[in-house]
Design brief:
Strand content: 5-15%
Membrane topology: Multi-pass membrane protein
Number of helices: 29
Largest sheet: 7 strands, mixed
Distance between the termini: 10 Å
GO molecular function: formate transmembrane transporter activity; oxalate:chloride antiporter activity; sulfate:chloride antiporter activity
Main location: membrane
Protein name: Solute carrier family 26 member 5
Keywords: Membrane, Transmembrane, Transmembrane helix
Structural class: alpha/beta
Length: 732
């Protein structure tokens, strides 16, 4: 065997040339002579002890991983970053304050709890989070999911007695019993969300976000925006309606609002409409002149201040305009959540935990990629879990990052989470000192803030035309996610969307694209013969390629496509062979009868001289007696049944194979062997080879010399085998 020689040279100074001269390899040779596995001298016990060995370096690495603030705070460049973080923090706090009040309405709890949720979690994320730019706090989608669970467990017409509210949870004695009960449900749900996220982070389950593909998330958040707008119509119109939850809640809510549209409170509607138009105009100006504005115009805080001033000057309560109401000064004492309510909230907790993490990690990765740093998905889960779990003892509801606030924090020059810390301190200042100022704030103004902040989500409808042009399957995921979430509710809609996304993956693996490959002259490259005119097939060789792994769900389809694309069906060939044999046998009988009739018409004394051996051989297959019939049948079997003598299975796209797939391939190889068609495998990676060995795929009949490292190796071996005379050695 000649040693392998390879060279890469410049051809005319324009293109690199590759020249390789080596023997044709198969897996039998590779596994026994060319490749040798490394021998691991480390036992399982040693690996386990190394895994749990404690050292100062590991302790330091664990501390830095658990508290990312320790990696950047000691080297924080005060002169370069501090002023930018201060400006960004103040700008973000100005937005966070009205959003905290507004999103509490979505969570079906009094507005002050939105302020609590805008302080404690943000403070904790500064220490545990890995993203430098996201703004943690209340978010419309998560708040709405919390509100749906709260309203389901505590409907507005529910009668609440004093025994239904524990003293520890009713830290705010000014709440009505039904509001206190709603706070209990929201708080215990938040505790469960925190536990789930924290445990997922410890178990390194940060990868779960990959199952929420971008079309699914965008369709889901667009549907959530529809739910949010529907839930705010009653505040905008100033009508009293029942709040629904569960499947078709959006339809029931719209029907309820329009059934009472004649009861619209005109002052509330006019004020809300004015705030909406003003906020939208400010948003357009901020977007158009963002390069010229040092900081975005704080439209939300302007609306809050002006509408509160209007409410002070004109007592809107006289006109039946709903206002925020009592906002207690100071922070509430911590209390243990009422876990007796937890059983019915388990599905909601998982849904909120996954959606909250998905929104946070997607936005975190976007900013990290833009600014050149990395985020740890598992640590983000831990950070969100701690934020939700610990904060829930201080009467907060579930949080995640907000897209609008994060964009403000990043666009105003924020460098680290010091900006988020300053924003939370602004909220704390309001809670401790001036919270009472916002008591006459009209709820219709908060509804306007919520609706205008959803404009960005409604722009996601623009995804539909590009998806139609690029990927019909992803468009289907987007539409199913949107429609299911609108009609079934966010919890069941998310479940249905995930299930549909998984079904599309199964569909793609069950129905992969398959093709017959041909070679491009003088390249050693192989491409689809139906797509590229330069690709041509070798005579007698079919190269079958399929873009999928082989497992129980698609093994039958793989075999059927193999037979269809190659045009070689062993059963049909065997049936044709059997029909040919029977026809030959029938012809032989007729020919023998003719000989007998001719002999009878000759003179009785004339003897029929038997044919010589040479004549018998010459006329074999034309005129034979009954003694030569077995020879005729053998001749039938010696004739080639198909012009194809070799089939190459290109497994470069195969990532795994299970026992069902291995059995199907083994069976089809035997079927083709019965009609003298050789099947070999090319481009099989080492992982799949290990799986085949584990599944005991190889045997005396199917040895590893039928597996080749590349399609070209397989082609050369098949050409050599087909040109070798019968009985020659199979060694190359």
């Amino acid at each position: 065997m000649e040693p392998e020689e390879a060279s890469a040279q410049e051809d005319g100074g324009s293109r690199l040339m590759l020249r390789v001269e080596r023997p044709v390899y198969d897996e039998e040779f590779l596994g026994t002579q060319l490749l040798h596995r490394k021998q691991s001298s480390t036992s399982f016990r040693q690996k386990l002890s190394d895994k749990f060995r404690c050292s100062s370096e590991r302790a330091k690495a664990a501390a830095l991983s658990f508290l990312p603030i320790l990696t950047w705070l000691p080297s924080y460049p005060v002169k370069q970053y501090l002023m930018s973080d201060v400006i960004s923090g103040l700008s973000t706090g100005v937005v966070q304050l009205p959003q905290g009040l507004a999103y509490a309405l979505l969570a079906a709890v009094p507005p002050v709890y939105g302020l609590y949720s805008s302080f404690y979690p943000v403070l904790l994320y500064t220490f545990f989070g890995t993203s430098r730019h996201v703004s943690i706090g209340t978010f419309a989608v998560v708040s709405l999911m919390i509100g749906g669970a709260v309203v389901r467990e505590v409907p507005d017409n529910m009668v609440i007695g004093p025994t239904n509210v524990t003293n520890s949870s009713l830290a705010n004695e000014d709440l009505s019993p039904i509001d206190a009960r709603k706070v209990q449900v929201a708080v215990v749900l938040t505790t469960m969300v925190g536990i789930i996220q924290f445990v997922f982070g410890l178990l390194r389950f940060g990868f779960v976000a990959i199952y929420l593909t971008e079309p699914l998330v965008r369709g889901f958040t667009t549907a959530a925006a529809v739910h949010v707008v529907i839930s705010q119509l009653k505040y905008l119109l100033g009508v009293k309606t029942e709040r629904f939850s569960g499947p078709l809640s959006a339809v029931y809510s719209v029907n309820e609002v329009f059934s009472k549209i004649k009861q619209t409170n005109i002052p509330s509607f006019l004020l809300g409409l004015t705030c909406t138009v003003f906020l939208y105009g400010i948003k357009v100006l901020n977007e158009r002149f963002k390069q010229n504005l040092p900081v975005p115009i704080p439209g939300e805080i302007i609306v809050v201040i002006v509408s509160t001033g209007v409410s002070y000057g004109i007592p809107l309560e006289k006109y039946n305009v709903s206002i925020v109401g009592y906002i207690p000064s100071g922070l509430l004492a911590p209390a243990v959540p009422d876990f007796s309510l937890a059983l019915n909230l388990i599905p909601d907790a998982f849904a909120v935990a996954i959606v909250g993490f998905s929104m946070s990690i997607s936005l975190s990765k976007t900013f990290a990629l833009k600014h050149g740093y990395s985020v740890d998905g598992n640590q983000e889960l831990i950070a969100l879990g701690l934020c939700n779990f610990l904060s829930s003892f201080f009467h907060t509801f579930a949080i995640t990052c907000s897209m609008s606030r994060s964009l403000v924090q990043e666009s105003t020059g924020g460098k680290t989470q010091i900006a988020g810390l300053l924003a939370s301190l602004m909220v704390l200042l309001v809670v401790l000192v001036i919270g009472f100022v916002f008591q006459p704030l009209p709820q219709t103004a908060l509804a306007a803030i919520i609706i205008v902040n959803l404009v960005g989500m409604f722009k996601q409808f623009r995804d539909i035309p590009p998806l139609w042009r690029t990927s019909k399957i992803e468009l289907a995921i987007w539409l199913v996610s949107f429609v299911a979430s609108v009609l079934l509710g966010l919890d069941y809609g998310l479940l249905a969307a995930i299930a549909f996304a998984i079904i599309t993956v199964i569909y793609r693996t069950q129905s992969p694209k398959s093709s017959i490959l041909g070679h491009v002259t003088d390249t050693g490259l192989y491409y689809d013969v139906n797509t590229y005119e330069e690709a041509s097939e070798y005579e007698g060789i079919k190269i079958f390629h399929s873009n999928s792994s082989i497992y129980f769900a698609n093994s039958d389809r793989y075999v059927n496509k193999l037979k269809e694309k190659t045009g070689v069906n062993p059963k049909e060939l065997q049936a044709a062979q059997e029909a040919k044999r029977k026809r030959k046998k029938k012809d032989n009988k007729e020919q023998n009868s003719s000989i007998k009739i001719c002999a009878e018409h000759k003179d009785a004394t004339e003897e029929v001289v038997p044919q010589s051996q040479e004549m018998q051989e010459v006329r074999n297959g034309e005129l034979e007696d009954k003694h030569s019939e077995p020879t005729s049948e053998a001749a039938v079997f010696l004739e080639p049944l198909s012009s194809v003598h070799s089939i190459i299975l290109d497994w470069t796209a195969v990532n795994f194979i299970d026992s069902v797939g291995a059995k199907a391939i083994k069976q089809v190889i035997k079927e083709y062997a019965s009609v003298d068609v050789r099947v070999v495998i090319a481009g099989c990676n080492r992982t799949v080879l290990d799986e085949l060995n584990t599944l005991q795929f190889f045997s005396e009949e199917l040895s590893t010399n039928m597996v080749f490292p590349s399609v070209h190796d397989a082609v050369l071996r098949c050409q050599c085998s087909s040109s070798r005379p019968p009985g020659a050695s199979s060694e190359a």
